[in-house]
């Protein structure tokens, strides 16, 4: 099957689906997929702003495979065109080859080799994962889809991943009082000073969470990604903005963490606290419900004969399916270490193994 997978991957990589800018319409890559799946019932839906879903069904499947087709932007560090697939040794190199068009190519190849009478299948291809803007998944889950199981493709080295962290992004705005920096009360009036005090407290708190454990994951992941504010060195900063994100364990309460981080700020100096994106952990729910869903996902992976891997730190849209009540896990070819890199690649062995396992599942 490998040759067929590579032929499809070559075509999928050639389509520019970078996100941003997510300049993606309902033709192009979707016309290609439609032509490769002639025995499927197909729905292509434009959700706006370049978010397009392609839902293909054959027979009466009980589970859905999900793959995102959007990629991160390419960087100047690429050694050749990112949209031309290259085979070098045991690697397939191209933008999205690892994350995660390789899985999409393998799904198409697997569908083509399985007999119609034995190959019940449902594929949901989407284009909004890389921008944390899950319009496609949200619309699918809001419909009467009828599925109880979901397998979400991300680079997991062909292992079924049952758990990963949640994710939240936040914008905080601090206010101050403009004035001359020589003033005695400049330390307390500066919006930037208050933002920096908040950051120090938050970092100390995160360090104290290092002892926490869940399914092989440890501690709380946290990052202050951007700090802006002030005018010049001899002026008290009248405003400042902080952008930060955190990735909790499945056992940590997202809302409680928000209350904690917000509470670290001087209430008089805090102008705004806005969560700009939230993705639940996998599995989702309280501790008891999360464990119940993890065991159900493990049983499904065992039933399908898939090896089970460790929990991972990166976030996936599998958590959205889990939060909606589906039994969900992450399973795909490639290694996350190659995702989002220049000269991104996926091993040929992983592509072949994934395609063969999907064909076996479809049959």
From TrEMBL:
Pathway membership, UniProt: Amino-acid biosynthesis; L-arginine biosynthesis
UniProt EC number: 3.5.1.-
Catalytic activity: N(2)-acetyl-L-citrulline + H2O = L-citrulline + acetate
Domain Peptidase M20 dimerisation span(s) in chain numbering: 163-269
Keyword Hydrolase among record annotations: yes
Pfam family, one: M20_dimer
InterPro entries listed in its UniProt record: ACDase_ArgE'-like, Bact_exopeptidase_dim_dom, Peptidase_M20, Peptidase_M20_dimer, Peptidase_M20A
UniProt: Co(2+) binding residues: 68, 99, 154
Free-text comment on the cofactor: Binds 1 Co(2+) ion per subunit.
Molecular function GO labels: acetylornithine deacetylase activity
Entry annotation: catalytic residues: 129 (proton donor/acceptor)
Alphabetical UniProt keywords: Amino-acid biosynthesis, Arginine biosynthesis, Cobalt, Hydrolase, Metal-binding
Cofactor list: Co(2+)
Xref: PANTHER family: ACETYLORNITHINE DEACETYLASE (PTHR43808), N-ACETYL-L-CITRULLINE DEACETYLASE (PTHR43808:SF31)
Protein family (similarity comment): Belongs to the peptidase M20A family. N-acetylcitrulline deacetylase subfamily.
Task performed by this protein: Catalyzes the deacetylation of N-acetyl-L-citrulline to produce L-citrulline. This is a step in an alternative arginine biosynthesis pathway.
Protein name: N-acetyl-L-citrulline deacetylase
């Amino acid at each position: 099957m490998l040759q067929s997978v590579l032929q499809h991957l070559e075509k999928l990589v050639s389509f520019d689906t970078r996100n941003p800018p997510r300049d993606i319409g309902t033709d192009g890559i979707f016309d290609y997929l439609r032509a490769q799946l002639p025995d499927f019932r197909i729905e292509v839906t434009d959700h706006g702003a370049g978010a397009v879903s392609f839902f293909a069904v054959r027979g009466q499947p009980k589970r859905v495979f999900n793959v995102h087709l959007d990629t991160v932007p390419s960087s100047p560090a690429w050694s050749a065109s990112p949209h031309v697939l290259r085979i070098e040794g045991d690697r397939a190199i191209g933008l999205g080859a690892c994350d995660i068009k390789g899985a999409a190519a393998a799904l198409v190849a697997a569908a083509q080799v399985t007999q119609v009478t034995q190959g019940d299948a449902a594929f949901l291809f989407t284009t909004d994962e890389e921008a944390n803007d899950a319009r496609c998944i949200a619309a699918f889950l809001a419909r009467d889809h009828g599925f109880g199981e979901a397998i979400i493709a991300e680079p997991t080295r062909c292992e079924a991943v049952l758990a990963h962290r949640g994710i939240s992004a936040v914008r905080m705005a601090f206010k101050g009082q403009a004035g001359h920096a020589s003033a005695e009360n400049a330390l307390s009036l500066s919006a930037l000073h208050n933002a920096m005090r908040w950051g120090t407290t938050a970092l100390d708190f995160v360090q104290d969470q290092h002892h926490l454990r869940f399914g092989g994951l440890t501690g709380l992941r946290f990052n202050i990604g951007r700090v802006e504010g002030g005018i010049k060195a001899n002026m008290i900063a009248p405003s400042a903005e902080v952008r930060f994100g955190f990735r909790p364990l499945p056992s940590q309460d997202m809302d409680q963490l928000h209350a904690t981080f917000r509470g670290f700020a001087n209430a008089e100096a805090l102008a705004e606290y806005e969560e700009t994106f939230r993705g639940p952990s996998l599995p989702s729910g309280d501790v008891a419900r999360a464990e119940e869903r993890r065991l159900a996902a493990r049983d499904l992976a065992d039933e399908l004969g898939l090896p089970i891997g460790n929990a991972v730190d990166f976030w996936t849209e599998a958590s959205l399916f889990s939060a909606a009540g589906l039994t969900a896990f992450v399973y795909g070819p490639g290694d996350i270490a190659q995702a989002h890199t220049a000269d991104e690649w996926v091993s040929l062995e992983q592509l072949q193994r994934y395609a063969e396992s999907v064909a076996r599942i479809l049959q």
